[in-house]
Amino acid sequence: MKLAQGIVVGLIAGYYDVETTTGIVRTRARGVFRQKKQKPAVGDRVEIQIDDQGMSYLVKILPRLNRIGRPAVANVSHVLLVISAIEPDFSVELLDRFLTFFSWQRVRVTIYLSKTDLIEAEKLAKIKQKLSYYQAIGYLVFTDYHEVQRQISTMIQDDQIWTLAGQSGAGKSTLLNHLKKDANQTTGAISTSLNRGKHTTRKVELFKLGAGFLADTPGFSSIDLTLIKLNELCNYFVEFKKASVNCKFRGCQHLKEPGCEVKKLLKEEQIMSSRYEDYLAIRTEISDGRIPEYLK
């Protein structure tokens, strides 16, 4: 009997595919996880036990960095956030929701604007102008998948797990097929009546890319932000957090407090008005304790 460590790269029909230094081992989880109400997730660093007959069992989950999404991916280091220019239409509000959520989860984000070839040049220029603000506050933004192809594999460091995220129909699986030619992910048509995509990804799987892994996950168009503490929300807007060191009052919520640096920069148009409006909208959502109906 021997023990080995690895990363869960796939889950199907109750079996876990674990990549080890000697290859992928398909294994089942011990019943102890059910007793502890634990469930291994794709991305988990785990320990497996292999007996003399070659049977293997997942026996231990090593400490996690995080666990994000449903179905979940564990130990996510970075998110490649796919936002479409059209079909579904580009939305700054949705972009801000995703960025707030992942900032709360302490996961770095790179933004990729998809479907730029399907939109009129004038409309695309307006979207790129908005995205230039996000570049200015520290987010890396790609608008060409060729550029993503050239750079992404070199950006993923040893055993890092990146995950694709974004609204349904934005083109995550299409991008994955470009990045990883043997991924063969199913792509789906857009529901024109709802202006949103059909969920074409049914499971979570890690694909080897560069020195690490890239995960494709089921798309989702709404995020629950109500678990964020109201007085901490401002810290997840990166430019607000940076500016707040110059606010008159510690713990300033950037509402009606005197000497607020965020309100000053907003008035000077150094903070984009839509970002502040989205901040207020999310505050209301958290206060009410529920996601607005139009976002479900």
TrEMBL record:
HAMAP family: GTPase_RsgA. Its main location: cytoplasm. The keyword Zinc applies. Monomer. Associates with 30S ribosomal subunit, binds 16S rRNA. This is Small ribosomal subunit biogenesis GTPase RsgA. Keywords: Cytoplasm, GTP-binding, Hydrolase, Metal-binding, Nucleotide-binding, Ribosome biogenesis, RNA-binding, rRNA-binding, Zinc. Signal peptide: none annotated. Belongs to the TRAFAC class YlqF/YawG GTPase family. RsgA subfamily. Residues 65-223 form the CP-type G domain. Residues 74-221 form the EngC GTPase domain. InterPro entries: G_CP_dom, NA-bd_OB-fold, P-loop_NTPase, Ribosome_biogen_GTPase_RsgA, RsgA_GTPase_dom, RsgA_N. It is found in: Cytoplasm. Binds 1 zinc ion per subunit. Pfam families: RsgA_GTPase (PF03193), RsgA_N (PF16745). The keyword GTP-binding applies. Zn(2+) binds at C247, C252, H254, C260.
